[in-house]
Amino acid sequence: MNPQGGHYLNKTAVLSPLGAVRLTELALGCTVISLVVHGAGYTAVYGIFCMVAWSACFALSAAIFALDVTRLHSCLPVSWENLTVTLAATSALLYLTASIVYPVYFVRNECPYNDCEVRNFRIAVTVCSWAAFVAYTVEVSLSRAKPARAASYMSTPSGLLKVVQAYVGCAIFITLANGSEFWRHPATVYCVVVFVLCFAVTALVVTLSVLGRTTFLNLPLDRFVVLCTFAAVLLYLSAAVTWPVFCFDRKYGTPLRPQGCPGGKCAWDSQLVVTVFCFLNLAFYITDLCCSQRARFVTRQPRV
Fold this sequence. Notes:
Blueprint: H1 12-15, H2 17-40, H3 44-70, H4 80-106, H5 117-143, E1 151-152, H6 157-176, H7 186-211, H8 221-248, H9 267-292, E2 297-298
Parallel strand pairs: 1-2
Helix pairs in contact: 2-3, 2-5, 3-4, 4-5, 4-6, 4-7, 6-7, 6-9, 7-8, 8-9
């Protein structure tokens, strides 16, 4: 109910630019899922991942839109601004990944048995998926903090980078589980511990911000973020040096890909991917450290 005696439904959730973007996301998400189920199809782990990503984003967007229209989000013990921008950023990353993975594994130039219908469906899925990624990116842009104005933490560049860091951290864990053989050396085990610690702290900051419980920290949130990000930069820097040495140096590993190494189950491939993600996340943490120096945001208690 609206305690001010206004309309029960929030017309702004539909008629505003943000509402229009969310309706576009729902339309594109529904189109993608329908095309995949109707004719494009999906198989294997990569196809299942894409379908799960599209379905999860559609379900979350539908829930956010419904809660915003009905104003029921005021009953949730969360920071609504932090929650919506976090889910939009996560959905954008999921759509970006699916938009790359799906055409790589399922779209081919040739038509099997001279039947191009399936291929055309898969091309349409790819186009709609990229369009949805753009829509979620626009939502993040509309929700971002404006200069010289206090804002919720997750709408600042530092907060958005926290989402990216956590996402890349998850990608590292998935790659490590895919036969990376990180347990062979204590140094690589140390690197895994670094990845886990940094991910845990990043996830803690995101969770507390979304729940509106940053006052639980003994330090102001901005100072806590700077200290944790600085520590993460040092830890990731050590991992970025240690991991490649113990994976690709001749004394400990193999500098070149072994001949006959099975595709998709080669430890060398997984180690290389982890190396790339490690340097990528190091760059994100350094950028975050620079952004957090200028961050100005407000912390809000959840509405109950």
